[in-house]
Amino acid sequence: MEKTLTLKEYVKKNDKEIAGLIVKMADIAERISQELPYRRGKADTKNVFGETQLVADKWTDKFIIGEFRKSRLVKTMKSEEQGEIVKLNDNGIFNITLDPLDGSSNMKSNNLVGTIFGIYKKDLPTQGKNQIGAAYILYGPVMSLVYATKNSVNKFFYTKKGFILKQKNIKLPEPGILYGIGGLRKDWLPKFRKYIEGLEAKGYKLRYGGSFVGDFNQVLHYGGIFAYPALINKPNGKLRLSAESNPMSYIIKQAGGASTNGAGSILDIEPESINQRIPTYVGNKGLIKNLEKIL
Ligand code: AHM
Ligand code: MG
Predict the structure, then answer these.
(1) Scanning 79, 83, 160, 291, which has its CA 20 to 30 A from the CA of 60?
(2) What is the pLDDT of residue 158?
(3) Residue 1 counted as domain residue
């Protein structure tokens, strides 16, 4: 039987450059999962995107930024819950993007939520292709941490022994079996609706849970496509380029898949602003190529 590897052992051996960061993320995940049952309800404030914040959105944001400030590894952070880039440590090595609690509208019903990180050495804002790594945490049913670097995509499960390696070098199964799409179908662009009808005709199954981390995680394991598309009344969709779309586009690429905003890879987009939204389509390469042709 192969020896069980802890996250710390694995990342130190295989992705040394960002080992300290990933270990810190795992510690952060453990604490957040313990606190979520108690950090509930509305906060009566709005974030820079005009969305009502929950107590959990604000607490996770403050907690994660504080932890990275203490760790001294991080120079700056751009969080979805903060309008501006936050300076942490002048001598820090990394610049991090953060969605502290993705899918937080699922908190009320106790459905999936997660945390998303993009990792850069370049100063922010910059193109997603400049990431040197990206990661997400999914808080259940078993808490998991998935991180990607240029080497591979790897998954860890939280157990009595802490985070342990569950799957290394994850690749998207071909040709995929699922699709999950945000926004109301009546608001999708006609060409996109036709594309999805084509997938349905081929037997692709709808799996949509309303959290990017959860819905993306399914695509990573079964193959298929996730999108928060351009909508008739919201041409840029909903997802944020820096905090959400870029890290997930990096992970899908390392798993053998692709991303697009409808015209080209999300990772190539030169950011116009730090709070920019972008139509987001991620999944198996063939599916994304076909979609680009249609759009
Ligand atoms: P959040 O980070 O504020 O939770 O917003 C992003 C989430 C995604 O996880 C999900 O794909 C999308 O919003 C769902 O939005 P809606 O419920 O508005 O359709
Ligand atoms: Mg989010």
Answers:
(1) 160
(2) 98
(3) no
